[in-house]
Design brief:
heterodimer; A: 262 residues; alpha/beta; six-stranded mixed β-sheet; four-stranded antiparallel β-sheet; 32% helix; globular; disordered N terminus; B: 326 residues; mainly alpha; 13 helices; 78% helix
Chain lengths: 262, 326
């Protein structure tokens, strides 16, 4: 087994490879994130962003090494992994009229004992997670009746309820309007400032450049460039991977009005 | 509605059904010579209906959770038909003396049902993974049911040359609690109790599985293990129910549907509620079986089928409407 990874790294992959149907979907992806860091996972459609996330959270089988809190993930049980690493899928498969509060309570599964009764600590964590994503008002509404943006908040709250310090979000801003995207990305920055490590797959390079500290640019399943966000989202790599030119000096962004929280 | 109120209403419903089932039927309780014997007979069939109701309703809740599909139940998935075939084979084995010599007769029937239900669910799990759609799942259940019914027909034909045996096989196949003995009830009761408690213990896991296997994995669920164990407990519940009630269909479909709007989709609340309503429903159906005028007592499976099949068609139509209109 490889030597343990330094403690400061909450998540590290070494040569992560996923092969499906005889074809490598991602190949030799090595990356590490620390507390306080927001890593943007970027790349064209089909570059392997979702595959990378699914491999890291254990939905897809993979080769290579994965460390969580410096420990090899292979040595951890499912519950131990779930307490370290939380995943917010792009779409939840949940199609039952479960209350938002119950959906968030799913995040406490890995903390519960044998009979699985929710404890006072579980209930407090659920309420806290709903509060911190601004979704407390949705708590007693059925998940299936929520809007797309509201569902994303509830799923983020579920991830926070796990207590995991590493968060993986698969295209959380896809299909969100600018105000909701801004609110969600600002929330991710607050979480990073709180000591979380965040890996977020994003389609919009402007969002990545604005809100993330580092970036991993994937192309056909391989790492094209990784490092500080300003070095990755730069003219040369963007032209090489996306085939478009960055236009210098054009800045078109959004922010919350003065004095208001997004 | 407050959950305690729902439980109280369900418990009252069950008590009323049990009271009615003890009071109604052939013979008069006012006759002191018959009173005790009648009560004993009726108590046995009440207990049998109650156990079968609990087993099938809770089994229904759990398979709907595991397959993430509100249109399935042990009967639609072929589990009851499998248990029923297992029971028929057990009756045959008993009559031909090969099994009765080594274990008590009362245990052979539930064990036969258990084996049948287990085989049926195992086949289903092999063919239907999580993403299997309604249609394939229901068709697979239909094919399994047809297969088990066909083999059951063969078993019935084998039993034809012995009058008592063929009568027992036919009565068991039609479903009913009239001929269930107190010892059969005593053999099934622990199975139902253990199955009920085990399913309730898995309710936290089932609540996470509602979000699909992939998400459940990321939330800490050992999905394969959870599917295997919950299927074992559904097999235990279904087989115990079939061993005392015969092939009774649709209870596991109707009961969860009635309850979800009242208690929500969380299994920790749904499972005890299903146990209460399943018991009340089947005890009530048994009362109907006794009071509906007919040449002989109506089989229990006929009544649950007449109530359950239209409900199933209604639910199927509604689910397609929802798919079409979003």
């Amino acid at each position: 087994m490889a030597s343990p990874s330094p403690r400061a790294k909450l998540l590290e992959t070494r040569c992560l490879t996923v092969v499906r149907g005889g074809q490598p979907r991602i190949e030799d992806v090595s990356v590490a994130v620390e507390a306080g860091q927001i890593l943007a996972l970027i790349g064209p459609n089909g570059a392997g962003k979702s595959t990378f996330m699914k491999a890291v959270v254990g939905i897809l089988p993979s080769q290579g090494e994965l460390f969580l809190d410096g420990r090899p993930a292979a040595d951890l049980s499912r519950r131990e992994r779930a307490r370290r690493l939380a995943y917010v899928p792009q779409h939840s498969a949940l199609d039952a009229p479960m209350l938002a509060r119950e959906v968030v309570a799913q995040g406490r599964f890995s903390h519960r004992g044998g009979w699985g009764r929710p404890s006072a600590a579980d209930r407090a964590a659920v309420t806290g997670a709903l509060e911190s994503t601004g979704a407390l008002a949705l708590a007693d509404r059925p998940f299936t009746r929520l809007s797309y943006g509201e569902r994303r908040l509830v799923l983020l709250a579920r991830a926070l309820a796990t207590g995991a310090r590493t968060l993986l979000l698969d295209e959380p801003t896809a299909a969100l309007d600018v105000a909701h995207s801004l609110a969600l990305l600002s929330r991710l920055r607050e979480l990073a400032a709180d000591g979380h490590a965040v890996i977020v797959a994003l389609h919009h390079l402007d969002e990545a450049a604005e809100h993330c500290t580092s970036a991993l640019l994937l192309q056909r399943g391989r790492v094209a460039r990784s490092g500080p966000v300003a070095e990755v989202i730069a003219a040369v790599p963007v032209r090489e991977v996306f085939g478009v030119d960055l236009v210098p000096g054009v800045h078109f962004g959004y922010r919350a009005p003065e004095g208001e929280k997004p | 509605m407050k959950i305690t109120l729902v439980y109280a209403v369900l418990a009252a419903l069950l008590l009323a059904a049990v009271g009615l089932a003890l009071a109604v039927g052939q013979g008069h309780l006012s006759d002191p010579a018959l009173r005790n014997a009648l009560l004993e007979l009726r108590a046995t069939r009440v207990a049998a209906a109650l156990l079968a109701g609990v087993g099938l309703a809770v089994g229904g809740v759990v398979v709907q959770g595991v397959f993430r599909n509100p249109l399935v139940s042990p009967s639609i998935l072929g589990t009851t038909a499998g248990a029923s075939l297992g029971g028929q084979l057990a009756l045959l084995a008993l009559a031909w003396g090969s099994a009765g010599s080594t274990m008590p007769a009362e245990l052979v029937l539930p064990l036969g049902c258990l084996a049948g239900a287990g085989v049926s669910l195992a086949i289903l799990l092999v063919f239907c993974r999580e993403r299997t759609g309604n249609l394939v799942l229901i068709l697979t259940g239909f094919i399994l049911s047809s297969l088990f019914l066909a083999v059951g027909g063969f078993v019935t034909s084998l039993a034809q040359d012995q009058w008592d045996l063929s009568r027992a096989v036919v009565a068991f196949t039609l479903g009913g609690v009239g001929g269930t003995s107190a010892r059969q009830v005593a053999a099934a009761a622990p199975l139902v109790l253990v199955g009920l408690l085990a399913c309730w213990a898995w309710s936290g896991t089932l609540d996470v599985l509602i979000s699909g296997e992939d998400e459940a994995r990321t939330l800490g669920v050992e999905v394969g293990q959870a599917r295997r164990w919950t299927v074992v407990w559904v097999a235990v519940l279904t087989s115990a129910a079939i061993s005392v009630g015969g092939n009774v269909a649709f209870v596991g479909l109707v009961v969860p549907h009635v309850l979800r709007p009242l208690v929500g989709v969380g299994h920790r609340r749904l499972i005890p509620a299903a146990a209460l309503l399943g018991a009340a429903f089947l005890v009530g159906c048994d009362v109907l079986a006794r009071v509906v005028p007919s040449r002989a007592e109506l089989p229990l499976g006929v009544i649950t089928g007449i109530i359950g099949a239209p409900v199933f068609l209604f639910l199927l139509a509604r689910s397609y409407r929802e798919v079409e209109h979003g």
